[in-house]
Amino acid sequence: MILVSGATGHVGRPLVDELLAAGRKVRALSRDPHGAGLPAGVEVAATADLPLEGITSAFFVMAAFPGGTAEPIARLKEAGVRRIVALSSYSVLDDDPKNMIAVKHRDLERQIRETGAEWTFLRPAGGLAATALEWAGQIRTEGVARFPFGEAWTAPVHERDIAAVAARALLTDELVGEAPLFSGPESITYADRARIIGEATGQPVRFAELSHDEARQAWRAAGIPPHAVEARLRMFATMVGRPHEISPVDPYLGRPGLSFAQWAADHADAFRKGTK
């Protein structure tokens, strides 16, 4: 049986579908098992319980364990889980000690290596397309997408592509001991994202560039710690005017990656006026 942590999240949910389609038994972890809304045939359990009996492979998402990763990873080791596929980040290649995202993911990878289990670390680059959902409320109500760096370039990755690579790592031996790094198939700006969402919904979206102070206020109001807010501002500033390097997912999936336009079409209802 395969364990999927973060099973109702952006990557975990399509991964559950991939594994079911392959005929595999899945135990899905959720903070709210009763409200998970997962397909019939999936065994749903509470993340806090972390039941591991009968588990041979696991998909591990750091965000599913806000209390820290050391204890759940130690439990995977004690239970004899043979393979761990983890959602990491290409930021691990940045050795700047101030880059806390990189530091945390490097520590995650180290902890998993030390279990002695077979491992695969997924390192999506270019940002997750799903971060655009942060605009959903304002686009639905005002037709506006607000962000401080309209000309910052990314190569957003569709969560279905990440899930497909994760499924290959769980279902075959082809990616054992590998750290696949892949981006979305095209480099676009944040202003482009707003335009593409408008095209997908048939309701034009205006991009409104925030000042740095306005972004600070908005991000802090959203609960982002001040040090993380400043780190975000520095990171996005380095992306302005610099098209993102493309790292194709084709070698891992045998097909091109899904575009941001495809992602926007898949999620159009989240942005349409009159929907919730």
Automatic annotation (TrEMBL):
Gene3D superfamilies: NAD(P)-binding Rossmann-like Domain, UDP-galactose 4-epimerase, domain 1
Start and end residues of each NAD(P)-binding domain: 6-170
Pfam families named in the record: NAD_binding_10
Entry protein name: SDR family oxidoreductase
Species per Swiss-Prot/TrEMBL record: Streptomyces sp. R44
Top-level taxonomy: Bacteria, Bacillati, Actinomycetota, Actinomycetes, Kitasatosporales
